[in-house]
Amino acid sequence: MSKIIAVVSGGMDSVAMAHHLKDQGNELHLLSVDYGQRHRKEHDFAAAAADRLGAPHQVADLSAVGAMFRGSSITDPTVDVPEQTWEGYGESPNIVPNRNALLLAVAFAIAVVEKAEGVAVGVIAGDAVSVPDSTPAFLESFIAMERLATKGYAHPDLDLLSPFAGLQKSDVVLLGEELRVPWTQTWTCLRGQESHCGRCAPCWERQEAFTQAGVNDPTTYQRSAR
Predict the structure, then answer these.
(1) pTM for the whole structure
(2) Mean pLDDT throughout 149-168?
(3) pLDDT tens digits, residue range 96-147?
(4) Contact 14, 48 (CB under 8 A)
(5) Distances (CA, A) of 160 to 13, 49, 110
(6) What is the spatial distance between Cα 218 and Cα 181, in angstroms, rounded to a whole number?
(7) SS (H, E, C) 35-46
């Protein structure tokens, strides 16, 4: 059994990852990060996952830093959330550049304190299309940097885990079904309203994942993108 700091936003991928890691017998410590995202209600779903899994949950408040992230629909209230998907680096207004690097830096700092053997992040294969700090090259470089940054202070076997990096979102749905992940206890929508809007890119991708997996989508949407 390993002690793992799991970066869990409250979304489908990270919550399913937490269930997966727990199912493998690991001791979990869930971490969410408030970086000023308009859908920070997702943290309520991360907290619910922690309760189900019997794990502690912390929210790191970096909202003051997030207020400086202009130009992204996630952190800048002057930028509308678009109703389409995007591919390619530098094209999506739904991306906060360097976000994963920021989240992981916090997670590794906590891993040092907790003497954890691992930090886990729920990136999936599709993320690498438009999120450069989700690629295998980035993850490999980041753990190399962290081993230098924490040498002598962290657990000697400290590693960066990305168990879903080779999976598509539909694969996550299928695995989550096996693990009995309660999908209604996950949050995807960027608008952060009472229910999922059903029209923003993440909502669209959520609906597509269930369709491709052949699994009934239990999510309540204001309006379906399909």
Answers:
(1) 0.92
(2) 97
(3) 788 899 999 999 999 999 999 999 999 999 988 888 899 999 999 999 999 9
(4) no
(5) 16, 21, 13
(6) 12
(7) CCCCCCCHHHHH
Q: At what angle do helices 201-213 and 169-179 cross, to 10 degrees?
A: 60
- The DSSP element (H or E) to which 110 belongs, if any, is helix 99-114
CA distances in angstroms from 88 to 127, 169, 179, listed in the order given: 10, 18, 32
Can you tell me the distance from the alpha carbon of 192 to that of 82, in angstroms, rounded to the nearest whole number? 14
DSSP 194: S
From first CA to last CA, the distance across the chain in angstroms is 42
pLDDT, average across residues 205-223: 96
Q: Where are the beta strands (DSSP E) in the chain?
A: 3-7, 27-34, 57-61, 118-121, 159-161
With both helix axes pointing from N to C terminus, report the angle between 12-23 and 169-179 in degrees, rounded to the nearest 10.
50
CA distance 221 to 103: 29
172-194 in b/e form (b: 16+ CB < 10 A) is: bbbbbeeeebebeebbbbbbbee
- 224 pLDDT exceeds 90? no
Give me the pLDDT at residue 47, please.
Answer: 98
User: Parallel, antiparallel, or unpaired: how do β-strands 57-61 and 118-121 relate?
Assistant: unpaired
Q: Are strands 27-34 and 3-7 parallel, antiparallel or unpaired?
A: parallel
Helix (H, G, I), strand (E, B) or coil at 19: helix
pLDDT digits (tens, 9 = 90+) for 10-46: 999 999 999 999 999 999 999 999 988 888 899 999 9
Q: Which helix (H) or strand (E) holds 173?
A: helix 169-179
3-class SS of residue 200: coil
